[in-house]
């Protein structure tokens, strides 16, 4: 899933374009397992007849036919330098979290990632902010009354990334075959 998100950004998000997509998976015991994702296609104003909901339903139907996890568990978005809090993000996350309580939004920052460490964070709206979103009153008075500040709008969910055994074997084989000079290439995100 992480590699698909990075690939989606590298293919469509160059410049200042934000890329978004759907996260698919399932809830197992007390944890959310994200096992697949697919991107929202970029479309222009010329594509006025493009129906995003119909596209999502068709993709999930196709995935179900090939026996891949097809349950919505959230969505992802790219951002720059952690500036992702917008009204559109709040509305989207509220609708996801209202429908499926465990839903998360994964925020991928390609600029921080290019500096050396993967910048991927998972967030959920706090219960206080969920109440404010239900009322749809984002006035300063309503936020003050609910005791909501920037720090307690989101709760960060810890992420654990797991590779399949086949990927681990492939990486081991690549490391074994590579010469000492070529090892730096394996650290490239493109690899």
UniProtKB/TrEMBL annotation:
SMART domains to which the protein is assigned, alphabetical: JAB_MPN
This protein's encoding gene: Eif3h
InterPro entries: eIF3h (IPR027524), eIF3h_C (IPR045810), JAMM/MPN+_dom (IPR000555), JAMM_MPN+_peptidase_M67A (IPR050242), MPN (IPR037518)
Gene3D superfamilies linked: Cytidine Deaminase, domain 2
Keyword S-adenosyl-L-methionine attributed: no
This protein's record includes keyword Cell cycle: no
An example Gene Ontology CC term for this record: eukaryotic translation initiation factor 3 complex
Pfam families assigned: eIF3h_C, JAB
Domain MPN: 1-129
Name of protein: EIF3H factor
GO molecular function: metallopeptidase activity; translation initiation factor activity
Function: Component of the eukaryotic translation initiation factor 3 (eIF-3) complex, which is required for several steps in the initiation of protein synthesis. The eIF-3 complex associates with the 40S ribosome and facilitates the recruitment of eIF-1, eIF-1A, eIF-2:GTP:methionyl-tRNAi and eIF-5 to form the 43S pre-initiation complex (43S PIC). The eIF-3 complex stimulates mRNA recruitment to the 43S PIC and scanning of the mRNA for AUG recognition.
Superkingdom, taxonomy of origin: Eukaryota
Organism phylogeny: Eukaryota, Metazoa, Chordata, Craniata, Vertebrata
Keywords: Cytoplasm, Initiation factor, Protein biosynthesis
């Amino acid at each position: 899933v992480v590699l698909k998100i990075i690939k989606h950004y590298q293919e469509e998000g160059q410049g200042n374009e934000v890329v978004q997509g759907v996260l698919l998976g399932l809830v197992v015991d007390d944890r959310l397992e994200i096992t697949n994702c697919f991107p929202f296609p970029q479309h222009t104003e010329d594509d006025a007849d493009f129906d995003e909901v119909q596209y999502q339903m068709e993709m999930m139907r196709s995935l179900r036919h090939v026996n891949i996890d097809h349950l919505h568990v959230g969505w992802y978005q790219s951002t720059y330098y952690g500036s992702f809090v917008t009204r559109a993000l709040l509305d989207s996350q509220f609708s996801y979290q209202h429908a499926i309580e465990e839903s998360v939004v994964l925020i991928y920052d390609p600029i921080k990632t290019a500096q050396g460490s993967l910048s991927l964070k998972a967030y959920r709206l706090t219960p206080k902010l969920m109440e404010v979103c239900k009322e749809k009153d984002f006035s300063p008075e309503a936020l003050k009354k609910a005791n909501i500040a920037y720090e307690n709008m989101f709760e960060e969910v810890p992420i654990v990334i797991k590779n399949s055994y086949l990927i681990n074997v492939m990486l081991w084989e690549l490391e074994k075959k590579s010469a000492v000079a070529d090892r730096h290439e394996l650290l490239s995100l493109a690899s």
